[in-house]
Automatic annotation (TrEMBL):
One of its GO terms (biological process) is proteolysis. The keyword Signal applies. Residues 1-23 form the signal peptide. Keywords: Hydrolase, Signal. It holds the Pfam family Abhydrolase_1. GO terms for molecular function: peptidase activity. InterPro entries: AB_hydrolase_1, AB_hydrolase_fold, AB_hydrolase_sf, Peptidase_S33. This is Alpha/beta hydrolase. SUPFAM superfamilies: alpha/beta-Hydrolases. Belongs to the peptidase S33 family. It comes from the Bacteria. The keyword Ion transport does not apply. Residues 42-302 form the AB hydrolase-1 domain.
Amino acid sequence: MNHSFKTVFVSLFVFTAILSINAPVSIAQQIYSKAYGHRGDPAIIYLHGGPRGNSTLFEGTTATALASRGFYVIVYDRRGEGRSIDAEAKITFDEAFSDLNTLIKQYDLSKVSLLGHSFGGIVSTLYVNAFPEKVERLILVGALFSQQESYDHILSSSLSAATQKEDTAMLKKISYIKSLDKQSEQYRKQTYEVASHFGFFKMPKPTEESKKLNQEYDSSSFSKSNIRNDKAPVLFYQNESRVNIDTKAILKSIKNKNIKLSAIYGLQDGIFSKKQLSEMQNITGPANFYAIENCSHYPFVDQQAKFLQSVQQIMNK
């Protein structure tokens, strides 16, 4: 075997091996996915936030722990986001639905439970509405469901905080954001920048458990593969018409399609108002709404033990 051919062969072998470790993965579609746990256990598919997100935080901190409780946990990065690099990706809901259908088929699953986090909550809600026959449960985790209400709450809360701190730069920025088209990518982007500035995504009082999880993630290979496609939000707003929506009516209708609906939210998740959390509780029913104290936008890291317990209770119902 000459040096040139050997180099090509080894490169192809390594590339194929990387894809095969987490089989089944479609090479043609370039969708990253990995399964944790035993095939045959109840299947849970995790849908990450975005657009521009990935599943590395959940995978690196929680997938194995959840699988150890008797579930077949599948994580993946949506096309054009994270590790599913695809220069031709459109970043639309329909594209996401098609890839999720392919993923379910590749893993030979009949019915699944979806764990939709943040923007992944909207993706999973719309998917269940379109393909109810493929889903047994929808579990929303810090999931968006009335986007404009969240944006309004973020800007209102930020305005109060900026006024109190006499933060003229943020006051100016908030005023500018309010002048933008609410259907634009910049409106969304800058609203979340303000939310991040005021710590709306962070738990109020980090515990030793959450500190350890974050430290382990930061030093892991998952953190090193925390790929972000800055073009994804731009493409989403360019190619998708449903960019600022309210899914409450859809969530209510899902319950009439024999889909088991539950929700897990941090009580200190700064992107949701108390009114919104109350509305979500009314939609799911009190018995299916899990509110976690000292917890913000990432319940599976902020309060992992309570998160795992909540998911297990939901899945056992």
